[in-house]
């Protein structure tokens, strides 16, 4: 008596047992198939201060100085109405910035797409088909016997070929029991945030690039002023030596030397004008417009840098630099992708269902008796495609490691750029002070040489050398001033300023 009972019990519980075995084997698959990978990389500690001059180190300033220049809005930092107007134009018309905006839209669409998988997929369906069953098939024999029944008459008789009409809805839904779909949505959301940070990085680079070209133009304007001033000096000297030649005090050689020097300086003037055209065209390209003159203020000769440059704390740079934040979000998304790939080893639960009107005669399709509904659930676990899933998992892990190293590389680059800009501002300031003294000394030397030349105590070669030296010194000074402003602009961008 016990044996039939046991058999009956086993028949009832066998499907449940098979289901449990599938679930347990699926859960163990990830442990047995997960490839051997090296240990997770360890992040290097971030320095607590920037390696800058003593008077600008954060640990040497007061609490009120803990916020660096990056906290300033670019309209405040660049105190120049012409430059502010140019930056406004660039932020409105620059094509790179518009491309970055479209990347955000792409990421937003991907996020919205990933959200759709969490809800059942419902489709409205209207279908029609026909099947001809052979007499030796299951349906053929079944339909033949059904039509012989006394209960089947008229429209209930099954024709052969048998039409199949359906109007209704069909639904499929993967139940997210392991969090795979939720993680896909999370990764897409992190990448959406990363694309927004990427746009901010484009803005910081664009603001800094516009400022660099603007200061380059101001430096070239300064070179033109210097060259024009020296052309006047050299023209006066040429007239003087011509007078002295007529008086018999110098020869034609002296006149030719002064004339050659004047021609050389005038040729430099033409070269600088061409450089101005090139810089204006590059700036117009950033502004997203065709070549046209750039409205700007006074040259760099009359401009001075701020007396104190504050960097703030390195932790503030990590929070402010958009490229670092973007790399961090990309790393988080890559780590989530690893969880998604790991979940592929586990069984998936899918539900399918339908509700509608189904009939093998078109005339009875609208009959309430044709209402049909169905629901099917199923578990599927990978068996023969484990190699592909394992390869996908290893690829996801490698991409996660790449994102980790890229994140660290971005931080190292940030510290390097800050240190370079900070040292550049200070070093170029010292160079400019020395070159200013040099220009003053050489200017006095030119005046002395001219006086001595008129009195006959100096040769014309000494006058030419003095004029050439002061020209080179003034040009070197204006180039150093340009390097100062460029270093300050690069420092502002390196600290994460310019995107607000």
CATH architecture of the largest domain: Up-down Bundle
Computed over alpha carbons, the radius of gyration is 40 Å
Query: If helices are DSSP runs of H or I spanning 4 or more residues, what is the number of helices?
Result: 11
Within CATH, the superfamily of the largest domain carries the name: Outer membrane efflux proteins (OEP)
Q: What is the third-level CATH name, the topology of the largest domain?
A: Outer membrane efflux proteins (OEP)
- Give the strand order of the largest sheet, numbering strands 1, 2, ... along the chain: 1-2-3-4
| CATH first level of the largest domain | Mainly Alpha
Give helix and strand order, one letter per element, not per position: HHHHEHEHHHHEEHH
Give the strand tally. Answer: 4
Q: Look at the helices and sheets and give the structural class.
A: alpha+beta
Report strand %.
5-15%
Protein traits:
2 domains, 4 strands, alpha+beta, Outer membrane efflux proteins (OEP), four-stranded antiparallel β-sheet, disordered N terminus, 500 residues
Quick recap of the structure?
With 500 residues, the chain is of the alpha+beta class.
Write up what this structure looks like.
With 500 residues, this protein is α+β, with helices and mostly antiparallel strands. It folds into two domains: 41-118 and 177-346 and 385-494, Outer membrane efflux proteins (OEP) (Up-down Bundle), CATH 1.20.1600.10; 131-175 and 350-380, Outer membrane efflux proteins (OEP) (Single Sheet). It is built from eleven helices and four strands. It has helices at 2-33, 74-77, 81-93, 95-116, 138-147, 180-246, 252-286, 314-320, 322-343, 386-455, 460-494; strands spanning 121-131, 162-175, 348-359, 371-380. The protein has a four-stranded antiparallel beta sheet with strand order 1-2-3-4, with no helix packed on it. The relative contact order is 0.15. It is a lipid-anchor.
């Amino acid at each position: 008596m016990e044996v039939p009972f046991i058999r009956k019990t086993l028949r009832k519980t066998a499907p449940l047992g098979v289901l449990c075995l599938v679930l347990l084997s699926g859960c163990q698959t990830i442990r047995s198939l997960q490839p051997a990978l090296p240990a997770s990389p360890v992040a290097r500690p971030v320095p607590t201060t920037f390696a800058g001059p003593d008077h600008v180190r954060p640990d040497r300033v007061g609490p009120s100085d803990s916020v660096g220049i990056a906290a300033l809005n670019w309209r405040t930092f660049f105190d120049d109405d012409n430059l502010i107007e140019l930056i406004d134009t660039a932020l409105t018309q620059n094509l790179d910035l518009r491309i970055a905006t479209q990347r955000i839209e792409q990421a937003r669409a991907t996020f919205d797409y990933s959200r759709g998988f969490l809800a059942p997929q419902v489709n409205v369906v209207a279908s029609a088909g026909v099947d001809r069953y052979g007499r030796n098939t299951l349906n053929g024999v079944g339909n033949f016997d059904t039509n012989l029944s006394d209960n089947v008459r008229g429209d209930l008789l099954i024709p052969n070929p048998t039409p199949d009409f359906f109007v209704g809805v069909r639904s499929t839904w993967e139940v997210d029991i392991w969090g795979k779909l939720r993680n896909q949505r999370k990764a897409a959301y992190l990448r959406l945030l990363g694309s927004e940070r990427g746009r901010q990085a484009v803005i910081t680079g664009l603001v800094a690039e516009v400022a660099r070209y603007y200061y380059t133009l101001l430096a070239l304007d300064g070179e033109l002023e210097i060259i024009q001033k020296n052309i006047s000096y050299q023209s006066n000297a040429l007239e003087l030596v011509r007078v002295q030649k007529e008086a018999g005090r110098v020869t034609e050689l002296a006149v030719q030397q002064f004339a050659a020097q004047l021609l050389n300086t005038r040729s430099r003037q033409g070269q600088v004008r061409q450089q101005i055209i090139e810089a204006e065209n590059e700036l117009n390209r950033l502004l997203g417009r065709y070549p046209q003159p750039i409205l700007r203020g006074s040259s760099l000769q009359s401009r001075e840098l701020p007396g104190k440059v504050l960097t703030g704390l390195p932790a503030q740079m990590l929070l402010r630099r958009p490229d670092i934040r973007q790399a961090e979000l990309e790393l988080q998304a890559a780590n989530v992708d690893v969880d998604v790939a790991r979940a592929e080893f586990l069984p998936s639960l899918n539900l399918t269902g339908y509700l509608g009107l189904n009939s093998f005669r078109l005339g009875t399709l609208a009959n309430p008796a044709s209402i049909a509904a169905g629901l099917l659930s199923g578990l599927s676990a990978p068996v023969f495609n484990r190699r592909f899933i394992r390869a996908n998992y290893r690829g996801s892990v490698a991409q996660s490691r790449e994102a980790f190293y890229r994140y660290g590389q971005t931080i190292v680059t940030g510290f390097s750029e800050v240190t370079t800009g900070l040292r550049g501002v200070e070093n170029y300031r010292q160079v400019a002070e020395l070159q200013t003294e040099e220009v003053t000394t050489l200017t006095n030397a030119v005046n002395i040489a001219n006086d001595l030349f008129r009195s006959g105590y100096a040769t014309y070669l000494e006058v030419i050398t003095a004029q050439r030296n002061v020209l080179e010194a003034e040009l070197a000074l204006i180039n150093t001033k340009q390097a100062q402003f460029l270093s300050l602009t690069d420092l502002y961008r390196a600290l994460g300023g310019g995107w607000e």
